[in-house]
Amino acid sequence: MSDARSEIDALVSGGYRHGFVTSIESDTVPPGLDESVVRLISRKKGEPQFLLDWRLKAYAHWQKQREPNWAHLRLGPIDFNDISYYSAPRSKNDGPKSLADVDPKLLETYEKLGVPLHERARLAGVAVDAVFDSVSVATTFKERLNEAGVIFCPFSEAVAKHPALIEQYLGTVVPYTDNFYATLNSAVFSDGSFVYIPKGVRCPMELSTYFRINAAKTGQFERTLIIADAGSHVSYLEGCTAPMRDENQLHAAVVELVALDDAQIKYSTVQNWYPGDAQGRGGIYNFVTKRGECRGRNSRISWTQVETGSAITWKYPSCVLRGANSVGEFYSVATTCNYQQADTGTKMIHIGANTRSTIVSKGISAGHGQNTYRGLVKVFPSAQGARNFTQCDSLLLGGTCGAHTFPYVEVRNPSAIVEHEASTSRISEDQLFYCLQRGLSSEDAVNMIVAGFCREVFKELPMEFAVEAQKLLAVSLEGAVG
Amino acid sequence: MSGEPLLKVENLQVSVAGQPVLRGVNLTVLRGEVHAIMGPNGSGKSTLAHVLAGRSGYQVTGGSVRYLGRDLLALAPEERARAGLFLGFQYPVEIPGVNNAYLLKAALNAMRRERGQSEIDAFDFLSLVKARMQTMQIDEALLSRGVNEGFSGGEKKRNEILQMLVLEPILALLDETDSGLDIDALKLVARGINTLRSPERSFVLVTHYQRLLDHVVPDQVHVLARGRVLRSAGPELAHELERRGYDWLLEQAAA
């Protein structure tokens, strides 16, 4: 840990944004990507040869690829040569000096979400020393995890300490050839999380990125790998309901999950990055590749996501159901307001016999938001007795938003049963009036109806997260209904 | 107290999409009274109930409504509700995923806040609701289901009365709560109304049938037709309507 810490401290010192590069020895490289940048990233991190080779293969492949354009999204071209691929750990001096310098709108949101005072500064990126209550909490957590044999650390630390595990599993679920953004990530990924749960261990607590020291500055190309060994069990929480300050517009993360025999992984996300302003200016582009493989028999992977942020969300957390009797689940709430666009869904790939999958997707559109569900259920000839149930509901608030559904189903085993249910609805005048007549304000009424619409997904979230998510949804949709 | 009417509707004129529906309705309800409003289909009965509760989509083109000494039409629907005006819906809407008990508790707390009371304790709420459910013979399992979600027609109507019993309004407008009920459910609805009946509380029952009025005897019966109150009289009028229908009244009015 301390090694990784000093390494990052070293990276941070002397870091200026591109345009102010003082010397070639500086840790920020000029914008643009070529092989030397990939080599530099790997060298700075002191990576083993296999990882450098892997990055280089990814880079070579990326050069031959073009951006995908099949998503139902409107966005201008992204200039990949205008990004600095090694400026991720930003200097503390770049942030606001105190809460007084922070956008009052952001502070108002923290207030509404009930974020504790000392956390607001950290989230807003205020230059304060990293001594919080959470540090000591994190230390206590680490001790308990150590006792259980659980590895939970920054990705770069895992590369240094557990290279064999990385070499064995990295890219086995999302290969570096997978897609444009995943390939780019493979070449230039900065950092992320690594989790290994040993055989038969039930992880003694929810693992949250929130409690991972050094997590704040992993940058725009995050890489996460979670391995649940045979018979183990883990629940992982990613993200935070409070919006984080982040100046990188493009985010292209990769998350890989591996569940071996009888193992279970539950992965929950609350994503609330900057969505852009009311006119649709700015906002994060979030192009994420998340995939889990139920590699072992009777294994289970469950994705739950609440997506309220980002200007553009392009994300399909998927399950490859290879082990016999394995189970994949996807529960999603995606909200688009103002000019936000989301193209999100899942893929359930049934390979093993008697594999089962459930998809519950709830899309909420307001303002000029465009919300797309895109899903694939694929049943291989080998997947005797496969089952899928898909439910895909859209809720429209107002008359200028859109909801779109693109379900793909490919079944090549006659014993499979695949069900798809879909609905599109509005909050009806009748529902609203009913609530008003019972004394609720129209804001409370809309929040209650929307929360009801999302209930099947919220109940999959860990308890505290569910409460926060509901609040977050209410804040996101504020003023969306006239 | 008895001198000042709880509700005073004067010459109320209402249009829907430019078409006049109410053409000068007068109605005075004193504290403690039960009024029945009857009349043929399309006469404006439900419109009257909706306008009093503040539903959008109606244009009030004339007249006034005083409630508790206030200009009722100037209040937002939720303000009317918090001031003790309750509408029992003819077609209670389903709200999927929203727990029945949750809505009821939110509603009760909205009323309590208005009265300057603190939010009700969860245990007190539960024991209150359970007692009322017993009165209405509603299965407790309904509490944890979505609002009206998958309820039978009779369950929905009984649920409306349950809400009324919990919220204890000052003026309850019940819009055809009795239609579509079998005789046992009808008796339960009547029991619910009679439980709340008091010198302080008033009811306006919109109904097609005499049979509810056998169990809840009204102080006055009004016949609303073609957007006007054609006749007001005591409970005997309902019996006469049951025998003779509405045509004779309409003919008299036309003459």
Describe this structure in words.
The complex is a heterodimer of chains A (482) and B (255). In chain A, 27% of the residues lie in helices and 29% in strands. Chain A has 482 residues and is of the alpha/beta class. In chain A, strands 1, 2, 4, 6, 7, 9, 11, 12, 14, 16 and 18 form an 11-stranded mixed beta sheet that branches. Chain A has an 8-stranded parallel beta sheet with strand order 3-5-8-10-13-15-17-19. Chain B has 255 residues and is α/β, with parallel strands linked by helices. Helix content of chain B is 38%, strand content 27%. Chain B is built from 9 helices and 12 strands. Chain B has helices at residues 45-53, 77-82, 100-114, 122-136, 153-167, 183-196, 211-215, 236-244, 247-254, and strands at residues 7-16, 19-29, 34-38, 59-67, 70-71, 85-88, 95-99, 146-147, 171-175, 202-206, 220-225, 228-233. A 6-stranded mixed beta sheet of chain B has the order 6-9-10-3-11-12, with helices on both faces. In chain B, strand 9, helix 6 and strand 10 (202-206) form a beta-alpha-beta unit. In chain B, helix 5 packs parallel to helix 6 (183-196). Chain B is globular. The mean pLDDT of chain B is 91. The chains are: A alpha/beta (482), B alpha/beta (255). At the A-B interface, helix 10 and helix 11 of A face helix 2, strand 7, helix 3 and strand 8 of B.
Summarize this, please?
Chain A contains 13 helices and 19 strands.
List keywords for this structure.
heterodimer, A: 482 residues, alpha/beta, eleven-stranded mixed beta sheet, eight-stranded parallel beta sheet, globular, disordered N terminus, B: 255 residues, 12 strands, 38% helix
How do the strands and helices of this protein lay out in sequence?
The complex is a heterodimer of chains A (482) and B (255).
Chain A: H1 2-12, H2 35-44, H3 49-63, H4 104-113, H5 117-123, H6 133-148, E1 151-154, H7 155-161, H8 163-169, H9 180-188, E2 193-197, E3 207-208, E4 223-228, E5 233-239, E6 250-251, E7 254-259, E8 264-271, E9 285-294, E10 300-307, E11 312-315, E12 318-321, E13 327-336, E14 341-350, E15 356-366, E16 370-379, E17 387-397, E18 402-411, E19 417-426, H10 429-437, H11 442-453, H12 455-458, H13 463-476
Parallel strand pairs in A: 2-4, 3-5, 4-7, 5-8, 6-9, 7-9, 8-10, 9-11, 9-12, 10-13, 11-14, 12-14, 13-15, 14-16, 15-17, 16-18, 17-19
Antiparallel strand pairs in A: 1-2
Helix pairs in contact in A: 2-3, 3-9, 7-8, 10-11
Chain B: E1 7-16, E2 19-29, E3 34-38, H1 45-53, E4 59-67, E5 70-71, H2 77-82, E6 85-88, E7 95-99, H3 100-114, H4 122-136, E8 146-147, H5 153-167, E9 171-175, H6 183-196, E10 202-206, H7 211-215, E11 220-225, E12 228-233, H8 236-244, H9 247-254
